[in-house]
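note to self: dont lose this again. the chain is below, predicted strucutre after it. 303 aa total, dont forget to put it in the shared folder this time
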Amino acid sequence: IYDDCREYDKAISHYGFANRIGHKKTAFNPKRFASLVTQIIEVYTPEFFAERRGYGVASQAPVFIVGMMRSGTTLVEQIATAHPDVFGAGELNKLREIVDGLAERAKDGQSYPECVKHIDKESVAVLAHDYEERAQRDAGHDVARITDKMPSNFLHLGLAALLFPEARIIHCRRDPLDTCLSIYFQNFAGINEFAHDLSEIGSYFRQYDRLMAHWREVLPLKMYEVRYEELVSNMESKAHELIAFLDLTWDERCLSFNRNPRAVVTSSSWQVRQPLYTTSVQRWRNYEPYLGPLKQALGMEEE
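---
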């Protein structure tokens, strides 16, 4: 309420109070997360994919919409799934379940991602079909594309490329400060352990950014990057680009994303029912005096 009333000093005080309560219930370790990202980068190399050419299932249906939460992933999903040939499967946990299963079955107690080096071609095909079955479960009919809008799948794009070498990735990007502050302002009910401290949010974002830079270099998949600021300022042009990337014929319904009848169960469910607005662009400037820890974690120099 204070944010809506532009009483930003009072607003940040209440956001901070609530997040301190949430932070007591979490155990995010920035160093451990950075180590995981490093391991993923070391395993998924160009040589890894070259040696496994021909693995997986040759399906163009899977579309992975990834990025930081609060970066526009739900908006992109709504635009895409307004097309009659696209089914939105929502935020699937299936890739994460596959990762956990690989670690449980790994020999010699190897953890993920190291254990993925030892998976054979037949096992990859089985896992790909398993993912497809889950993704298609609610579609009810054959569709050209099926979107999986789990933002944290950015961690698992190497596995996705192994399972589906013809899949597509839509990467949603937004100004780092706006993204991180929006996460800080959102109650995720304990799902995202890093989301209660500006410094930890910044550390997480920095590792996400490092991993996405790696994926752009090594993944043998088609990737389209959507900048939130460009999307909300020039939606029609960007929507056309998005549908073209999916290799589909344009459909005018994609411009009426807020009338898309499909259920939305993410924290952006209210926003995507509204006409497009730009008031969230550079929202961070309202709170600039309080962003020192965030800027430091992001590696930004104080002005």
